[in-house]
Amino acid sequence: MRYVTDDNRKISAILAFLIIPISGFAMDVYVPSFPAMVKDLHTSISSVRFTMTIFLISYGVSQLFVGSIMDSYGRYRLGLISLFAFIISNIVIITTHSIELIFVMRALQGFVISMIMVSKRSLFIDVFTGDKQKHYTSLLSVVWSSAPVIAPFLGGYLQHSFDWRANFYFLAFYAFVMLLLELKYSGETLKQIRPFHLSSVIRTYQNMLGTKDFAYGIIVLGLSYSMAIIFGMSAPFLIENIFHYSPVITGYAALSSGIALLLGGMLSKYLIAKDFYSKLTWANSLQGVFAISMFATAHLFTSIFAIMFFVIALHFLMGFIYNIYFTYCLTRFPDNAGISGGLTSGGGYIVTSIFSYAIATVVNIHNQQTFAISYIILVILIALMLLTLRSYLNRPVPVVN
C-alpha cells in the first residue's frame, strides 16, 4: 500500500482540502431545489426537509464510531470505498421517483461522507505536528466553510437551467474526479495500527465526553450550525413561495450567508491567540443583539433584503464561534485523532439535526419574525452552554499534597 510521506504530503494535503467541502456540497447543493422536489416527487415540504435531516443524523451518528474503525484499519482504502459508494448513491437518486428510496440513499450518503471526512481530517493530525498542525486544522474549518458559500449558489443555477437531479449529477461527477486523484496521488496516513478493542474504544469515548470543555464544545458546535441548517431548510420556501423569486435568488441568498460564515471563520483564525472564552462570549452577545433587533424590527420591513441583513450578521458570528471551538476540540486529543475528530463533528451534527428540524418544524418559519424567533432560541441555548463552561473553567483546582 502507498503511504503519505514527506515527498507527497503536500499534494495529499491539497487533495484533502479539495475533498473536505464534499460534505457541505452533499448537504447544501440541492437546497434551492426543495420546492421543485416537492412538486416533482408529489411529496410534502416536511419530507423534502427530512432528506437533509436524515443525512445529518446518519452523518453525525456514523462519525461516532467510524473514527475508531479508521484508527484500527487505516484511512486510505476505506476512504476510496466511500467515494465509490457515494457516486453510486447519487446515480440511484438521479434515477428514482421514490422519496422513500431517496431517504435510504441520503442515509447511506451520510455514512460514507462521514468516512471520507474522518479520513481527511485525520490526515492533518497524522502527518503534521506543532504549529503547522494548528495552522492546518484551523484552516480546515475555513475550507470546509467554502461549501456553504458555493453549493447553494451553484445549485440555484443548476435548478434554474436544468432540474433538481442536476445537483446529484454534479455530486457524482465531483466524487468521481476526487476518486481518480486520490488513486493517483494520495495514500495511507496512519503510521501505527491500533487493534480494535470495543472496551478500549468505549473507555476512550467516556474519557473524551467526561472532559467537560470538550463535551460542551460539541453541543455549542451543534447549536451554532443549526442556524445555517434552519436557514437552508426554510429559505427556499420563503424566497420562492412567499416572495416569488427564482431558485437563482435562493442561491444568491445562500451565497451571502455562506460568505458570512466563511469570513467569520477567517476572523477567528486571525484572532487565534486571543483569550478562548472571551472571544466566544463576545460573539454570542453580539448574536443576541442582532437576533433581538431582527425580531423587534420585523413589523417595519417585508423584504428578503432586510431578513438577509440580519442573517448575514448572525451567520458571520456563527462562523466565528464554530471555527474557534471546532479547532479547540479537534486538537484536544491528538493521540486519538480519528475518534476525537469523529466525535467532535458527529456529535455536533447529531445536535444540529435534532434542533434544526425541531425548530424549523415547530416555529413554522415564514417571515422575518419567525426567523428571528428561531435564532433567539439558539442564541439563548448557546449562552447557557457558555455560562456552564465558564463555571467549569473557573472551578477551584484541588490541591494535591
TrEMBL record:
Q: Transmembrane helix: is it a keyword of this entry? A: yes
Its topology with respect to the membrane?
Multi-pass membrane protein
Keyword Transmembrane helix applies = yes
Keyword list (alphabetical) reads:
Membrane, Transmembrane, Transmembrane helix, Transport
Q: Which residues form the Major facilitator superfamily (MFS) profile domain?
A: 12-393
Membrane-spanning intervals of the chain: 12-30, 50-69, 76-95, 101-118, 139-158, 164-183, 214-239, 245-268, 280-298, 304-325, 337-360, 372-393
Where in the cell? Membrane
**Entry-linked InterPro entries:** MFS, MFS_dom, MFS_trans_sf
- Taxonomically, the superkingdom here is Bacteria
According to UniProt, the name of this protein is MFS transporter
Task: Say which species the protein is native to.
Answer: Mucilaginibacter litoreus
